Amino acid sequence: MTLTGNLLLGQRAVAGSRDAIRAIDPATNQALEPAYAGGTGEHVAQACALAWAAFDAYRETALDQRAQFLETIADEIEALGDTLVERAVAETGLPKARIQGERGRTCTQLRTFARVVRSGEWLDVRIDPAQPARQPLPRADLRQRQVALGPVAVFGASNFPLAFSVAGGDTASALAAGCPVVVKAHAAHPGTSELVGQAVARAVKRCNLPEGVFSLLYGAGREVGIALVSDPRIKAVGFTGSRSGGIALCQAAQARPEPIPVYAEMSSINPVFLFDAALQARAELLAQGFVASLTQGAGQFCTNPGLVIARQGPGLQRFIDTASAHLRQAPAQTMLTPGIFNAYQAGVDALAANPNAQAAASGVPGQGPNQCQARLFVAQAEAFLADPRLQAEVFGAASLVVACSSDEQVRQVAEHLEGQLTATLQLDDGDIDSARKLLPTLERKAGRILVNGWPTGVEVCDAMVHGGPFPATSDTRSTSVGTAAILRFLRPVCYQDFPDALLPSALQHGNPLQLRRLLDGQREG
Amino acid sequence: MTLTGNLLLGQRAVAGSRDAIRAIDPATNQALEPAYAGGTGEHVAQACALAWAAFDAYRETALDQRAQFLETIADEIEALGDTLVERAVAETGLPKARIQGERGRTCTQLRTFARVVRSGEWLDVRIDPAQPARQPLPRADLRQRQVALGPVAVFGASNFPLAFSVAGGDTASALAAGCPVVVKAHAAHPGTSELVGQAVARAVKRCNLPEGVFSLLYGAGREVGIALVSDPRIKAVGFTGSRSGGIALCQAAQARPEPIPVYAEMSSINPVFLFDAALQARAELLAQGFVASLTQGAGQFCTNPGLVIARQGPGLQRFIDTASAHLRQAPAQTMLTPGIFNAYQAGVDALAANPNAQAAASGVPGQGPNQCQARLFVAQAEAFLADPRLQAEVFGAASLVVACSSDEQVRQVAEHLEGQLTATLQLDDGDIDSARKLLPTLERKAGRILVNGWPTGVEVCDAMVHGGPFPATSDTRSTSVGTAAILRFLRPVCYQDFPDALLPSALQHGNPLQLRRLLDGQREG
């Protein structure tokens, strides 16, 4: 479990030769050993060649073998023990308990996808048997299954060094679908990435899979990433990060001779709507819950509540006053990287300098480097509707309250929003009619709608949608969290009049995988 | 049922004011009345505004109401009687029986989607009930369903004036998903388009749906189409046509502030692999079936067999000789438009002038205007691998036989192919092992793989895949024929901790739609 600073090209550890990245402990601004020299175009090509060579065999692994592989990755990550936790804490400034929780989530996620793989439901088997006597033309025997898209490029995210990184949701769902994965590690946590990458590589070996099923690359800047997305052997991309980064990858993917899908999860300010009866009944409780959600993890969540929308009045004033009071007590927290801290500072400085927004409260100022001081601003709806800068994501513990003069203005503000990962409704019984009127708008704007909760906290389960209209993601037809994420990396293939000997087992007449098929228009019991 | 030459903006017939299109009877080169003046940018905006206004209501129509709407469209198309058939024959040069068959297919398709809508399986309901006592954190109640993407722009295709046009597969699947549709009629059959458009508009009225559920636009050139795809209220695009047209729409969709999915079905040469034992046993029969498939409908099918690949030898020579003999008897057939005829001529002239291809046979020369003379060419595999021009689609009854020196060269040729709608294997028992080795390549290259059939003829059923890797389509994750096409126009939304009174009926606790939900990880019986 020693850190080597090497790339992983399949089972081979190789030293890069380009500009190195080095993790920085954001709590101290100290650089951490070792250096990770960047990969070259040749390294990218080697990783993709290995992935391509592995693809046909890996995508046809038996369901149980593939599930065991995912479980073995989880076992190997757990076997890293405190080495992993300590390195992740040092590289991210996140508390130890948070990293431990995230490790649990990461391993649960891998094991959940193992269950999904075994169930085989994702194969979506559809069979229309031959009708040789049909008039005017006979019907052929037609059988459809889902097959893996091909090798997938995964970009680790800064804010979840385990759950959205080397063996995070994108990797787990791609591997579950039968796609080899080439990861570009996030520059903020290369050591954590290497440890997890070694764990995945060990699982590949233990499960006797072709080595190209997994590779891990490093690189400063965007060169390695763009080369990876441009490689003809890569057939899909998973990304969680900034809007500019996601759009750059989408453009690179579209510029290829063969364009490929990009699943980029990018930007969301997660509006929270406070309805009148709820505000009247419990403005103070709402303010407390809001500040807890806003400041959790220094606000470094894709689902952080960056926008609060409500009708002006005494209830909203009580909410603002109480939230301000809580916020003033909120301790400063170390952010993930100096870059994220600087972007946060620039974002709140821009809001503070914007005459359309009034500063309501600030948290406890930071004492050490890279500490996020929570901020709350207030704007009038007219100003919000007129000023697109007020809708820009400020990644961190900053939020804006938009005060509206009427239900109609609340609706206008909602219609004016860009696509979101989440929208939240705080309501009491008396608000149901108002909420119902707003719902069609929110269904068009967000991937997940919550009632009387807070958007931070994303469950890994069958029903989760962590996605949403652009710019929340680049592809609103999917989710990056939850079991439905496997569907992103599949495509349908139809087999017509195949002899049983040539059919994949999922489609054979005897149904050896015991799947619940759609047979002649009827779902099997 | 009089043709007016007007656009349909919802229920309103409006005269365009831009350059007019006029159908041309390709059998006589005579222009047909009336003229269809093109829509303006303002007409496009009005159609999109109506579609947007209709969207929230239409996407929440009850399943039975939406199904009845699809059935009513089919009824109204049938009620057009011979008026429709005669106009379509005049505009396309296709035989009457073909148009009658296509009308049947179109109406069956609409009724099939009515069945799909009623089943509700496409809602993909997933429910993870709350676990308030879970440690360390409780689980919220999470419920997922699929919702419609938004208004869809549909571009009619030239080669199926009914089944891939105004009320064809793209329109049927989008309407089934809950999306209003704005159709840009194909310039080759505006009268057929108007008749069908009037039928759809009557169905909208009979079913008391908001008028914006359907509009129909005309336009010479690409102006109306690009304006339509660029309108912010359009959320997806369906297209069947040329590679250049499809790519132009993809680029317009990506250039929007909010990029949207484009389902463009573009270009495929549908390779047919003839294996040794099959060739030895029945080269003559294969040649006969091949020429019948190649010349059907003057070769104007997306699935036309434009490429034949086999090992050199006496079997292949018998195939080429017999196919040539049949082809020489093949009568010339009128093509759909002068433009398609000219493109076909240019394509076969280029092949005839290419030293890498040898002309093997020509069909009976045409006597009237726009008649397709069938053509067969032969090339050696080395030349095919070296010359990308030999892989260019020639839309019409032309095909190229590629002679290979070994199984390995057959595999190389297969790997060298672009993405395809179909790949066909002609094999006998003795060929099974060779076919099995080729299958992984073909699964990566094509959406449908056939054994001992011919690719023309695309069944509308659950298991069909009419799709495939780029450039066969712009999105290999889907199909444009068959019931799975409804999935193209949906996105998931998750509802967290909703009171029953706010939940859509598909997700309510009492399961009033009686759906087979994925409940706590288990599929309901």
Features:
homodimer; 525 residues; alpha/beta; seven-stranded mixed β-sheet; five-stranded mixed β-sheet; globular
Mean pLDDT of chain A: 97
Strand element count of chain A: 25
Assembly annotation: homodimer
Strand content of chain A: 15-25%
Spatial strand sequence of the major β-sheet of chain A = 17-19-20-15-14-21-22
What does the model show?
Two copies of one chain form a homodimer. By secondary structure, chain A is an alpha/beta fold. Chain A is 38% helix and 20% strand. Chain A is built from 14 helices and 25 strands. Chain A has helices at 41-59, 63-79, 81-92, 96-119, 169-177, 190-206, 223-230, 243-255, 276-295, 314-329, 338-353, 381-386, 407-416, 432-445, and strands at 7-9, 12-14, 18-21, 24-25, 30-31, 36-38, 126-128, 142-148, 152-155, 181-184, 214-217, 236-240, 262-265, 271-274, 307-311, 333-334, 358-362, 371-372, 375-380, 398-404, 420-426, 446-451, 490-496, 518-519, 522-523. In chain A, the strands form seven sheets. A seven-stranded mixed beta sheet of chain A has the order 17-19-20-15-14-21-22, sandwiched between helices. A five-stranded mixed beta sheet of chain A has the order 23-8-7-24-25, with no helix packed on it. The first copy, chain A, starts with 6 loop residues before the first strand and ends with a strand. In chain A, 60% of the residues are buried. Chains A and B meet through β7, β8, α8, α14 and β22 of A and β7, β8, α8, α14 and β22 of B.
